Amino acid sequence: MVKEAIVLLMFFGAPVQLQEFTVRDGLSECLKAKRTIERNVRTPSQKAYNGSMRLACKKLKVEVDVDNRIVEFIDVNRDDLLPY
């Protein structure tokens, strides 16, 4: 099934590139998941995470399977899949 969805994109590695992506129920749920991940990857002495991982919530057109997993990105600009 093809639909427009809010997708949490996770970029990391060397060079930084798209590694993981998941459909979220909405923008607020995506941003909540993003904040939770950012809090959990930093050490207790850090105020903010300073590593190479980047997270983004974007509205994209995707094809999903019956379990709501992304099978393919549809009509997506290459710039939409960049970490900035």
Question: Explain this structure to me?
Answer:
- The protein contains 1 helix and 4 strands, in the order E-E-H-E-E.
- It is an alpha+beta fold and 84 residues long.
- Helices cover 18% and strands 40% of the residues.
- The protein has one domain.
- A 4-stranded antiparallel beta sheet has the order 2-1-3-4, covered by helices on one side.
- The model has no long low-confidence stretch (mean pLDDT 89).
- What pattern of helices and strands is seen along the backbone? EEHEE
What is the structural class?
Answer: alpha+beta
* Poorly predicted ranges: none
Estimated radius of gyration? 14 Å
Could you tell me how far the N terminus lies from the C terminus, measured between alpha carbons in angstroms? Answer: 28 Å
Count all strands and give the number: 4
Residues in helices, as a percent range: 10-25%
The backbone outline, from C-alpha atoms, is globular
Number of helices: 1
β-strand amount: 35-45%
Biggest sheet record: 4 strands, antiparallel
Keywords:
84 residues; 1 helix; single chain; four-stranded antiparallel beta sheet
List the helices and strands and how they pair.
Blueprint: E1 2-12, E2 17-24, H1 27-41, E3 54-64, E4 70-73
What's this entry about, in short?
The protein is an alpha+beta fold and 84 residues long. 18% of the residues lie in helices and 40% in strands. The radius of gyration is 14 Å and the shape is globular.
